[in-house]
Amino acid sequence: MQRLDSIVGGVLFGLIAFIGIGSTWFFGAWETWWFWPFVSCIFLTTACYGVRLMLSAFLGTRRLNLSTLVYSIALAWLPFLVYALIRAIQADVPMDAERSFLLKLTPFLLGLIAATGIPEARHRTLLALIMINLGLLGVYGIANHLLAGNATVLWVPGFPQYQSGYARATGSYFCPDHFSGLMELALAMAMALLLVRSSTRVQRVLALGLVGIALFGIILSRSRGGGIVAGIVVAAALVLCTMSWPRKARWIMRGLGLATLTVAISSFALFGGHYVKRFKEYPWTTLQHSDRYQMSAAALRAWKTAPWIGVGPGMHSSLWPHFAPSADGDRVTGRWPTFPNNQYHSFEAHNDWAQLLEEYGLIGLGLFLLAVGTVLAGLFRRWRRWAFIQASCPDCIQSTAWVLPGMLLAALAMAIHSIGDFNLQLPGTTWLMGILAGLAVAIARLTPPFRAGQSNKSVENRQAP
Hints:
- The protein is built from 16 helices and two strands.
- Helix content is 68%, strand content 1%.
- The two termini are 28 Å apart.
- It is mainly α.
- The protein has helices spanning 2-25, 32-59, 68-90, 94-116, 123-148, 176-195, 201-221, 224-240, 247-271, 274-281, 291-303, 316-323, 352-392, 403-417, 427-444, 456-461; strands at 152-153, 156-157.
């Protein structure tokens, strides 16, 4: 039994690593012919996890990374997943509804398995593989832009509209904004590794390199949302990650960091070239004329027809022709709407939050925020406690503590960028976030139950209640 459990644990590690790394290279698994093979791998991973759970009848559950945080997260996610499944069954577009539901279910499964199913000894290896992969993704995106002009995305021809006017890096994703979203995850994790007190000198050097790659990738993508998010993530990291330093050092780092950020933003505004020009050309003063504003407005018009339960998962694209025109038109008097929006079709609302509200209603949005909030609140409480202890006892915290603030920063990045895009509907991105969240939850189980001055060994050996 023990040998079988060890084999299954190794298979779980391999599958999780393949999904988290491979999906980001296969165009984010966006297209159906890439989406379903990876979903099949996730189901196979879940089956292997089920085997480990069944072996618990003979081997016990102590070998699994179970904690009250895991149980509370699972209980918080269950109502939303049940609700989403019921609404998906009721939807009039079965295939779109199925995909919408799977995009909610699969990251949760990956997070749960990463948190409790992977042997603890392999956590650092998986983290190292993910960080290296994020760096390689950034290097590929930069090289493909500078050397090949993004003519292809890997072996497939790219979309020429992203290179007209402003050449924009696409990386392994077809859309520059989605590539930027991936680099924002890299920036969030790298900033955490760079700034937390428990990091070694080698880790800081590697993290600084990844920060440079991520920022350069975002700049070359010329994503306006990515630029805004990058500034917010860096500022938030200076506050969140420096909590683990003594008070004097903490405020010195924050002051120097904010001054550097201010100088960088000012220099960028003066000498940013095409990127700054692209910022200026956006209709900031007349947002209602932009297509993204109109797509969000149409999603909200559709939501008002079923405010509590929404119009149904996957229904945005199907209902677009009906709700695309602005509401000031009048068929009886022959008055055309101010914005007919009949020159294009919106397959996604380019606003994850508006589309979630439109398709799942207030009930669905509330349950989703409760589920995500439970994860983030649990990680923040653990990190705050760890940071307080580490500020006076730098050797008391394990070296993987940086994953907790890194995940909090990654969630902040995706939450903000998703106001103007649909990064959270990219399977590869959501799967990677699910795995990182699971690893953060697994690491958070070793919450220090002591005051500064107690032995480090007691921290590593005692599990969180």
